[in-house]
Every structure is written in C-alpha cells, then in structure tokens.
What we know:
Elements: H1 3-24, H2 29-54, H3 62-78, H4 84-106, H5 111-131, H6 133-136, E1 142-143, H7 154-175, H8 179-189, H9 191-196, H10 201-227, E2 229-230, H11 237-250, H12 255-271, H13 281-296, H14 300-310, E3 334-345, E4 348-359, E5 363-367, H15 374-381, E6 389-394, E7 397-398, H16 404-410, E8 412-414, H17 427-435, H18 447-460, H19 476-489, E9 494-498, H20 506-521, E10 525-529, H21 533-539, E11 542-547, E12 550-556, H22 557-561, H23 564-571
Parallel strand pairs: 5-10, 5-11, 8-9, 9-10
Antiparallel strand pairs: 1-2, 3-4, 3-6, 6-7, 11-12
Helix pairs in contact: 1-7, 2-7, 2-8, 2-10, 2-11, 2-12, 3-4, 3-10, 4-10, 7-10, 8-10, 11-12, 11-14, 12-14, 17-18, 17-19, 18-19
Amino acid sequence: MSRSAIGQLVYALLAASLVALTATVKTDGYVANILMQAATYAIAVFGLSIVLGLCGQINLAQAAFFALGAYAVALGTVDHQLPFWLCLVGGMTLALAAGAALGLSTLRLGGHYLAMVTISFQQILTVVLINATGFTHGPDGVSSIPRPTGFTSVQAFLALVVAILASSGYLVWRLADTRLGRAMRAVRDNELAASANGIDIFRTKLIAFALAALLAGLGGGLFAGGFSYISPDQFAFADSIVLLTMALLGGASSPVGAAIGTGLLILIPEWLRFLKSVPGLYLAVYGLAVILIVIFMPDGIWGYLGKLFQARERERPKPAEQLTLHPVDSGAPMALEVRGLRKNFGGLKAVDGVDLQVRRGGVHALIGPNGSGKTTTLNVVTGLYRASDGAIFVDGVDVTALPAHKRTVAGLARTFQNIRLFRSMTALENVVVGAERDGNALIKGGRSALWRRAQAALDFVGLGHRVDERIPSFTYGHQRLIEIARALAANPTVLLLDEPAAGLNLSEKKALHDLLGRIAAQGLTILLIDHDMTLVAGAARHVTVLNFGRRIADGETADVLRQPDVAAAYLGVSE
C-alpha cells in the first residue's frame, strides 16, 4: 500500500473516531458551544488555506462570506420556513457567487489593492446587515433558527458539523496534489513561470477565491444552525482578521494547520480565563503567545512540524522508460517565425522590426550585446509582453494575439535568464507542472503517466535521484537543469533557453553543451540566447544577431561570427 493510501486510511479512521466521539460522549452546553464554534470556524479557515495558503492571495472578507451563509440559513428557515438543507446550499451558492464577483472585479489588481477591496466589501456588508432592518432584522439579529430534522439536539448537530469538517478538510488536503492545486501553488510561488508553463493565472486565482468563499458560506450556515441565533456583530471586520490569524497561526498551506490554528485561537482564551481577574494581563499573555508562535514558526505550527519530518521522505523509484520528445509537426517549414516584430516602451524601441526564422530541428542562437533586445524579443514571443507590431507563428499557427499560457499550449516552452522555479515544491512537482500542460499528447494513462514523464525528464538532465528535494536545497547549476527538465516534460514544439549558461562553471557549461546535443538529437527545435560564444559556436548551427533592437546578421554560425559588423557590435572589434 502506498504512503498516500496509508495516509488516507489513517485520516478516515481518525475522522470516523472523532465523529463517533462527538455523537456519543455527552458534553455540557458550554463545551458544546466551544466545539461548535471551533468546527464551524475551521471550515471557513479551510477556505483561507486555499486562497492564501495554496494561491497566495489575501482575502480580508472571509467573515463576510461566512455571514452570507449564516444569514441565508437564518432568514430562509425563520422568515420563509424553507428546509435547512435548501437554505444551506443557497447560502453556499450565494457566498460562491459573491466571491466570484468580487474576484472578477479585483483579482487582476492583486497585492494591496485586493486587500483594500476585500476590506471594503466586508465593511459594506456589515453596514447592510445592521441597517437593512426590514430584511436582516438589523442589530437585533435572527433568533430561533431551526436545525434539520434528525439533528435537532446539540450533540447530534455537533456530530454532523464534525463530519462535514472532516469531509471538507479531506477535500482541501487532496486539492494540493491535483492539477488545480499545483497550478495554485505555482501562481503563489512565481506568476511569470506559472504563465509560461500554461497556467491561466487569472482563472486559477478566481477559482481559489470562489472556493474560499464557498467554504466560508458552508461554515456560516452551520454556525447559524448550531447556535440558533446570529447578529451582525458576529461577522465584523475584526472576525475576518481572527480567521486570517487562525490560518497563519496553524499554517495556511494545510487544512491540518488551519484546524490547529482555529482550535488554538478559540481555546487559548479559555485556558487563560484565570488571568481575567487582573485587568489587561489576559490580553497581554494572549497576544504574546500568538506573536511568539508567528515569530518562531513563520510557516505556522503545522509547517514547522512538516519540516521536521521532511527529511524522512523517500525517493520515488526510477521509471523503466526513457524521456522521449515528439514535437508536433504540422508540415510548416518553420517551427517558429517572427515577422516585423516591434516592442516599444514609451519612446524606447526595444525591438525594432525583427525578422526571425527558426527551422525545425537543431539549435538556433539569438545573440547580441547587453541591451540589444534579445530577452525582450523572447518575452514578446512567449507572450509575457504584448507586441507593438508584427506577427509570431508557431508551427505555422499565428499566436500573436494569444496570452502567454495559450502560447504554451501552442507548443512554446521556455526557461528564464533569472531562474524561476516554484520554490515551495519538490523538483519532481516542478517538472509535473510543466508536463501537465494542455496539448501534451505524451501524457496518456492518467496520474501515473504524468509522474513517470516528470521523473524521466529529471533522469534526462541527471537529477532523477533527487526528485523529492525542494528547490532551495539545489545548487544554482542544478536549478538550471530542473528548469530545463520542466520545459522538456511539456514536449514542446520549440524550446526557448534564455541565458542557460549564465552563472555556470566550466564543467557545468560542458554538461549543458552535451545536454543540448542530446535534446537536438531527438528532433526538438531550440532557440538559444547566450553570451558564451564557445557554447553558441559549439551548439548552434544557425545564428541571428541583434544590436539596438535590430537584426544585423543572420546565417550559418561560422559565417556570421566572422562578419565585421558582428565583431564590432558583439565582440568589440573593428576592421
């Protein structure tokens, strides 16, 4: 049995035991209320594990989505006598719609703008709940909220909430190891690299935001049923901060951490009740405890514990298969063609009417002095910058108007001058993100085929024995190789390498030269940008030279490097 299957079995046994315990062991009303609050809050914090922990987006309106679920259940059951379950689903749907709408209007902004908008939404909803007395019952709140048939007692309803808590926690836990979860983690770690590997950044953020709101609505609806009374002061901005603190305290990247953080922030005040007789001391100790945990465990309690056991991870077995590259060939003579490409930054012409034809197979080098427009050209070709003018064709298909992630689907894969890996992931997970791009015809057979290809790509670059190590543990040169492996796993039509030899020592450059030869031998087209003329002369059979954003030479490598204009512009020699 695999470690994953064992983990799922242990989780199921623990969850079933916890549900059975809450259903059979009688507790007094005070303890039941504490447990009810912890369980319902934890479900909402699971949502923050998605949007903040996995996707890296700030959400300061989680209490507002929690309120939407709570008021949907309260008003639906009390004012309109609708069934509890219908109202709960309605509240979740309302929260989901609100989260999606808020995300559509703000997620392209990101950063502090996103935080400001979510705060504003939270404050507006609070004002509405207080002042729309004819609809929300105003400051008096809604009382006598019924529970669903079969769960009318506090103990039975608590057991139901714990079961839902366990189920939602399991789904969030498993999400991290799905394609969507890896896309979220990639967006959190490096948006440019995520886009260059075929991930739709905006769509991924939007899904994360909507799922977070959905879980908050679920928690809020159960909260209303559990306490049978709600009022606006239970869903203020301060409560959003509390939910966020719970996620950060336990570890935002894991639902286990979210549950730990929720339990601690609810239980610590109860443990410190004996200090309330001394004015101010209770809050001081409470605040100090939270600060110490955050300072000494920046990844949260669960993140700290995870690091302790990380070294015990075992390597994955090597696959029997070798990496194969079968780039798509539509019959077009050029794998990549650029016509009249221009990119202006205000009055600066960074790329000025460049034409580039990269024939299928082999290595084509794009060289030039610093500031000549090489990397800018590459960024425009891959869609990170939008062209001011001109056209770009991949395998005969015009991709000029496509966003970056769609150009990856069309067959482009790239590395970056400044290495852009997903640093919180293992080497294997990084390569899996590249392998599972849309349009990769070699990924057949589901999850096992995906991971085998990623393993094979790491084997190909010589790092197959370190698949479970995280990126910070690798040297600079090895990180270069992982980035190349990630691009190769996607089975692109054209591989674009931006300064792959930068920062490498002599032995690493020799290994890179051999690697390029092995890649080219499988028929993959490579467009190489580099300043190392030894590498360029040895690896590339065709060279295009840029200077001040213009093409000044193009042809066979040996002929181009002997041209006086190239010597003057690139080598600093005049004749």
